[in-house]
Protein: 4Fe-4S dicluster domain-containing protein
Organism: Segatella copri
Amino acid sequence: MIKINKKQDCCGCWACENICPKHCISMIEDEEGFLYPHVDVEHCIDCHLCEKVCPVANVEPEKKNEQQGFLLQIKDESIRKESTSGGSFTAIASWVINQGGIVYGAAVDYSDFKVKHSAATSLDELGKFRNSKYVQSEIGDTFKEIKKHLQDGKWVAMSGTPCQIEGLVHYLRKPYDKLLLIDVVCYGIPSPGIFADYLTYMHSKIGGKFNKILFREKRLCYNYTSFSLFNEKPELDYHKGVESDQFMRSFFSDMNVRPSCYDCRFKKRYRVSDFTIWDCYDVKMFSKNFDDNGTNRILVHTDKGMSILNVIKDSVRLEEYKNLDYFIADEIAMVKSVPMNPKRADFFKDYQTMEFGAFINKWFPTTFKVRLNSFLRKTAFRLGIYNESKRFVKKILGKN
C-alpha cells in the first residue's frame, strides 16, 4: 500500500485514490490544508496498484522530442478577456466539444468555494475553466471518468498541472489516440485550506455573498491583474492587485506552497503532454504582430498536438517561434522548483494556532510599502506607461 513518509513525496494528484479497486484510499486534509492519501488497512488487499501509478514514485524520464513553439490569441475577444492570457485552452477544448467529446479542467465549486476538476460537454460550460485557479484542485473521480470515456471511443481533453497530467498518464497505463493532454506551467500550489479560511475571513469583513471568484481578472490590463471577489451586492465587490491581496501575497512569498513543490519532479521542458501552455506577458519581445491584451505561449510536444493546432488555426491568431531556447528562457517556473521561504514552518505554525484574521494580518499587513507599490502600479497603468515601465525594470534587473 502507498505510504507517505515524507510529505514532499506526494503531489496530491489522486491517482492512487482513483486506482484502488477496494475504494479504501481517502484524500484527507492535513494541518496545512493540503490533501494526502490515507489507506483503510483493514480493507487493503495489497495489490500495490496505488504504488505503481504514483507519478512521484515512478517519475517519467525526460525524453527529448521535436517540439514546436507558438504564440496564440483566440480571435473571440470576449473569450480572451475572460481568459488568463490568450484563450488557447478554450480554442483547443472547443474543438474537442465539437467532436462530441468531453473536456476536464479546474473550476470553482460555488457551493463550497473549493476548486475541483469537473467535466464540460458543451461550449457554454467551458467558461467555468477560464481564468487561473491559484489553489490545488480536487481531482475526485476524474481519472476514472476519463478512462471510461476513452474506452467508449470519445475524445477527451484534460487540463491540469504537470503533476496531475503525469498522474493521469500513470493511472491510464497506456496511450489513447483520442486523449489530449494540456499542462500549464505551474509556479507551485497554494493551500486549499488557507484559501477556504481566507474566503470565510473576507466574507466576515465584506458581507453580502460571493458569487464569483477570479484569481487573475484583467480588470485594468493583462499585465496588471486583479484578485477579484464578486458579490451579490455589486457595491461590495472586491478587487486587489496581486501585490496587495493578502492571499496572493502569501502564495508568492513562497510560504503558502505544497511541500512537494519545493522539489517538483515535473519541472522540465520535455513533457508527457500534447501541449504546454503559459503566459506571454511581454509579447513584443517575440512578435510585433500581437497586442498586449493577452497571449499564450505554447509548446507542442506531439504530432497529435500539431494536428489539432492546424485544425483550429482559423479560430486563432497563431505565429510560430523558431528559437525555442529564447522562447522559454524567461519562464523559470517551467524547469525550476519554487524556493522554500525559510519562515515557512513559522508561518504554518501560526496558521494552526492563531485566529485567521490575526494570522493573515501578522504575516501580510497592509503597510505603507504595500500601499505605495499598489499606487505606483495603478498610476503607471493610468498614464499608459505600465508595460513600458515593466520592460524598463526587467532590463535594469537583467531579466530580459
Notes: DSSP finds 14 helices and 13 strands in the chain. The longest strand covers residues 210-221.
